[in-house]
Amino acid sequence: MARNKGNQQKAKRKVRRAIRSGRKRQLSGQEARLGAQWRSLVAYDMMIRDPCAAAFARAPYAGGTSGYMARINTSFVPVLIAPAGTVGTKVTANFTYIFQPGAFPGYLIGANVGSTTTSFTNLTQTGTFLSNAAVRQFRPVAACLKWIPSGPLLDRAGVVAMGYTQAPSKTVGAAGAASDHQALANNALRRANNGSDTHEVRWLPAPSDESYLPTGSTGINNSGACVSMTGVGLDGVYTAATNVTMNGILEFTLIVEWLPEGGQGLSTVPETNLPYTSQQYQSSIADIGNFLLTGTRSFGDALGRGLARGATQSVIQSISSVGSRRRSAPGMPLIEHLEL
Predict the structure, then answer these.
(1) What SS3 state is found at 78?
(2) CB–CB of 191/114 below 8 Å?
(3) Neighbouring-strand partners of residue 159
(4) Which of 15, 99, 191, 319 yields a CA-CA distance of 20 to 30 A from 31?
(5) What CATH class does 65-260 carry?
(6) Residue 18, SS3?
(7) CA 157 to CA 248: how far, in whole Å?
């Protein structure tokens, strides 16, 4: 009896070893590669959602030249040129700030105080990194734009509108009159009371953003996606005879992939394109407007299922088939319940 029991235990151990061995063989080939592709896709998704804090990830852009990654964060309090006034006087003003990550300097602004068409006194670019002599070309990978209200809570006034557009006209945002800012706000993704919450809009690339661009362009061009922040009737205060300081902070974060100038002792390595594109990734988002504003995908829209619907490459279809066998591949936790 004892001998039979011992033989049964040995047989069970052999079965368990065979199962484990089979799983290792299963994950050593195609499924292991697909698992790596899933991880890269998830990492890219997290970077698009949270450019401020997420780890760097390779973007699914065309072209096999892989550059270096950098995160640029800039924040400033808008100061508007204003008609003569008394220091300490509280006023309301309008402004529009349009940020195009694929141009440098990638901004376009306009403002008005009362009936006076004006502008910012502090034109902040995307930092000094992209003007460094070591940088030859760059392309945007992820970005976001924020308005953070500040100042006395009882003085908070106005409406904040967040927008997104691809292939903008150069004249967009050269607004000065209050009606111009109001028109931009009316056509934005979302309008919200200034209040005390941070207002944020995320950026998604247009196809033209995938090309490397030289630094030193002269502002917004006619291609590439933009995000915008428009304030209508926001509170500010005279801090100088002809300056109104707004009660809030504009902040933008930009992640770029850049190529070095020759002679810098840096090199780039050709890489095979990823088996999905940025446009296929975007096609997996059921409600892009909500995603741009909150970073949240629509309920029940799993990343893999959505991406597989719009994909044509066989490898993406393979990813979908692996996803349907999630429970039989415990060694691939990233595929397990990928509700993003």
Answers:
(1) coil
(2) no
(3) 193, 232
(4) 15
(5) mainly beta
(6) helix
(7) 11
